[in-house]
Amino acid sequence: MTWHIDDRALESYVAGTADSASGSSAEQHLVHCAGCRERLAVLVPGDLLDRAWTGVLEDVQAPRPSLVERMLCRLGVSTDQALLLWTAPAFRAPWLAATALTVAFVALAATTSDTRGLVLFLVVAPLLPVAGVALAYGPDADEAYEITTAAPASALRLVLLRTVAVLVTTLPLIVVAGWLVPGQEGLAVTWLAPSLAAVTATLAASTWTSVSRAALAVCVIWGVLVVSVAGPGFASPTTAIAPPNIPWYLVLAIVCVVVLWRRGGRLHQLGGIS
Amino acid sequence: MISTSLNGVSKSFGGTPVLTDIDLDLGPGITGLLGPNGAGKTTLLRILATVLAPSAGRVRLLGQDPARPAQRTDVRRRLGYLPQELGFPRGFTPFTFVDYVAALKEWPDRDARHREVRRVLDLVELTDLSAKRLRRLSGGQRHRTGLAQALIGEPDLLVLDEPTTGVDPEQRATLRRVLSAAATDAAVVLATHQTEDVAALCDRVVVLDDGRIRWQGTVPDFVATAAGRVWLAPEPTLDALASWRTGTGQFHHVGPQPPAGAQPVEPSVEDAYLLMLGSAARTAPAVAS
Amino acid sequence: MRAWSECRDEELVSALAGDDLGALHELYRRHAPWLSVRLSRRCSDRDAVADALQDCFTAAWRGSARFRNDGEVPAWLWGIAVRRLVSRLRGRPEAVLPLGPWDGASEPSAEERVLLGVEYGDLGAALARLSPEMRAVVQATVLDGLSNKETAQLLGIPSNTVKTRLHRAKAHLRHELAGGIS
User: Fold this and answer.
1) Which residues of B fall within a CB distance of 8 Å from A161?
2) Which residues in chain B are contacts of C21 at CB distance < 8 A?
3) Which of A166, B24, B39, B133 has the smallest CB count inside 10 Å?
4) Contact call for C143 and A27, based on CB within 8 A
């Protein structure tokens, strides 16, 4: 490079007063000459550049609010609540994929085999939301659990928000799967009652022990219950959700909600297990 | 502004006492909590950070009683906490993680929250790495992210559990600057088992051993407890509590009774610590250079 | 570790793949000023210029892997910036600044004359004799590197018109350059 843009031409180029010819010449030169670019940089006012840089930072550091977050905000949820909800494991792809696979497997089992498959469906389906709750909160699920606990945001509200997130993602899938099971009208819906009881029982029990243990206990109890009332050789597999039994689940759910409400403060601190 | 104190605080887990009869007052400035592993430092810090309730005793944090839910939430609004075990959910970058914690700390306005996140990341010099996945950062860089989230909102009480883990010497200077700035109005408590941290960072020190406070006061007073009980000699002696070879070839001794005619040496925090814990010191002294 | 200010442009771009904001900031410091001026000469709307500039560096951050080391970083950045401007100005041809008179109302200085001569030589004079519409198309396609479709979007004219004008412009220029050489 044997020559460079002289100062006057550079100034008029930056000011926008250069004519087309010298402006275009300057432009072609600047693409190749770092020195003249540096000289030009000094002449450009900073306000537009600073504004654009802040925009770049925002684009690069913070991902745009996802579709889900924006939908939630439109429903009236504040942006920070939407952020906390979206980062709930319930919405993360692995959980969704695992849920879908489980449901598919179980529905398949229910349709292809006979009473055994039905029992399997009945055991697994109501417990999927419980697993979701276990994943949504607690030391085993949340890697930043201590920081979350020490924050002023209400732990109870966070748990409930995430439980809602879990229910919203898993319930529709399971209802569809249940609907596909042949010969059992109402199966798609009647299992919702034990599911509700299981979820509220897990939440209530988590005020005594860790969420994972509570979830595990509930799963085991439910599995044993379904199998034991199914009769010898699984003669009557759907006894657990026979219409006379449904109200019991609802009663249990109400009791658990009351317990959770009264003991909700316990969720604000780490349990005795350190 | 001494409105943070513990009186007669004890904590047991399933019958095993971890903290016994802790009396502590915290004011503005940096207080170091020094003690060997297993002394109960983490438990004590968890009580200060409101994530653990004591089995007995009275706790006052920033003038509030953390046993009452409404006051506990109020304390948490003015609290910053860096736990010892720091985990990050998958896929977070320093920016998105600190943003997440800021959301937990009730910053609903997105723009204001992002400005605060950038401010604290800049304080710990993580701006250039703020868009990089945490899983791909070094341990020290992850720890700085942890420190950044604790600094959100300029807390009045800053509780840090082993903040110098994985921090190299030049970053230690940054840490000192950040904590000193924070400590002008806030009470800063940091736990460590390394005496160099206390010497470099703290105004006051509390020595914790086996769940009890052995000593508390200013750092100069602490060092003075070892006056006249540190000496150099050409050969190691058996009377000393601990001795090690220095870079000059002499042996540095710490002990309750120096022999007559011994060459006395200015004591350090480490010397005072060794003397304080006596033969119960579980950490082997490092070779001083 | 060397400071970013000592690294070449290509090194900065490779560092973007490692998600290093320091590299992006240095790239911005070096190139955003001249890019903003060049964009402003195409568009009267300062907000559109700021947005295009922002989009450009965000796109550079995300697409740094697509930069092949055979090109030059400034040219690559300009390519991104001008395309972002085009998409921002879609449907707003009134914001596009017309290319002013080639010769300028004022007498060019001696330096400018040398510049013109060295950069364009006879081409400069030949370009001066084109009509403004043809010059605009030449500037967009040849100087700014836009495709016909993008040029059409920028100028708010049909794609076929772009092709026709470019064809005619090239014919004119060939004629001029083959003919008298001064």
Assistant:
1) none
2) 127-131
3) B133
4) yes
Contact A147 B83 (CB under 8 A): yes
Chain B contact for A80 (CB, 8 A cutoff): yes
Return the bridge partners of B254, or none: B230, B242
Tell which of B127, B128, B133 to mutate to test the C interface (max C CBs under 10 Å). B128
Q: Is the pLDDT of residue C49 over 90?
A: yes
Q: How far is B132 from chain C (nearest CA, A)?
A: 5
Instruction: Give the pLDDT band (50/70/90) at residue C118.
Output: low
pLDDT at B190: 95
Q: Which residues contact A126 (CB under 8 A, 6 or more apart)?
A: A191, A192, A194, A195, A198, A222
Where do the structural domains in chain B lie, given as residue ranges?
Answer: 4-219, 225-280
Neighbours of chain C (3+ CB pairs under 8 A): A, B
**37-66 of B, contacting A, C-beta below 8 A:** 43, 46, 49-53
8 Å CB contact of A83 and B103: yes
For B95, residues 6+ apart whose C-beta sits below 8 A from its C-beta are A61, A62, B117, B118, B121, B130, B131
Categorise residue B140: left if φ over 0, alpha if ψ from -120 to 50, beta otherwise: alpha
Fold type of domain B4-219: Rossmann fold (3.40.50)
Cβ separation of C19 and B132 shorter than 8 Å?
yes
CA angle A127/A129/A131 to nearest 5° reads: 70
How does DSSP classify residue A237? G
| Nearest neighbour of A25 by CB, restricted to C54, C115, C139 | C115
Q: Which of A267, A161, A83 is nearest to B72 (CA)?
A: A267
Instruction: Report the sign of the C-alpha dihedral through residues C161, C162, C167, C168, in that order.
Output: positive
Residue A76: strand, helix, or coil: coil
Residue B132's closest chain C neighbor by CA? C19
Rounded distance between C-alpha atoms, residue C67 and residue C72, angstroms:
9
Residue A62: its chain B contacts at CB < 8 A? 95-96, 99, 114
User: CA B231, CA B257: separation in Å to the nearest integer?
Assistant: 10
**CA dist list (Å): B152 to B99, B106, C31:** 10, 11, 34
- pTM for the predicted model, two decimal places: 0.82
Question: Which of the residues A51, A56, A80 would you substitute to probe the B interface, choosing the one with the greatest number of B C-beta atoms within 10 Å?
Answer: A80
Residues 180 through 219 of chain A touching chain B, CB cutoff 8 Å: none
CA distance B246 to B241: 16
**Cross-strand bridge partners of residue B161:** B191
Integer-rounded Cα Rg, in Å, for chain A is 30
The rounded distance, in Å, linking the Cα atoms of A29 and A24 is 9
* CATH architecture of the region C1-97: Orthogonal Bundle (1.10)
CATH for the C99-182 domain, from 1.10.10.10, 1.10.3720.10, 1.10.8.60, 3.30.360.10: 1.10.10.10
The per-residue pLDDT for range A125-150, each reduced to its tens digit, is 888 888 877 777 777 667 788 888 88
Separation of first and last alpha carbons in chain B? 40
Contacts of A141 (CB under 8 A, 6+ apart): A89, A134, A135, A211, A212
DSSP per-residue letters across B212-231:
EEEEEEEHHHHHHTTTTSEE
Shortest CA distance to A174 belongs to which of A218, A137, A126, A237? Answer: A126
Question: Which tokens hold the place of C22?
Answer: 């320091």
- Give, as one character, the DSSP assignment of residue C107: P
Is the CB of C102 less than 8 angstroms away from the CB of A19?
A: yes
Whether residue B283 has pLDDT greater than 50: no
